[in-house]
Amino acid sequence: MKLITATIKPFKLNEVREALTDVGVRGMMVHEIKGFGAQSGHTEIYRGAEYTVNFIPKIKLEIAVDASMADQVIEAITSTARTGKIGDGKIFVQDIEQTIRVRTGETNIDAL
Questions:
Q1: What confidence tens digit (pLDDT) does each residue in 63-112 have?
Q2: Which of 8, 36, 51, 70 could bridge across to 89 with cysteines, CB 3.0–4.6 Å?
Q3: What is the DSSP string of 52-82?
């Protein structure tokens, strides 16, 4: 099993969710986060005063899938989240040793 963690632009969330559903993802966790990378923030003007926004709003997705689905999930995320501009996000893939569904006690693939 694999845990795929992706950061994407907030306005891409629904499009990415639909693409993931189409490839068979049955669930995911979504977090609203703030961060910076290569873009490292920007300046804005509010009521005539200029200020710096150091952390950019992002969406963090956590998706646990069978290892055989990982490449499909990664492709679905990259193809739908890509705008071609700086700040499109990152994807991290980790191995999962064990998964347990609390309600039923099912384990591993059955728990997904």
A1: 999 999 999 999 999 999 999 988 899 999 999 999 999 999 999 989 88
A2: 8
A3: EE-SEEEEEEEEEE-GGGHHHHHHHHHHHH-
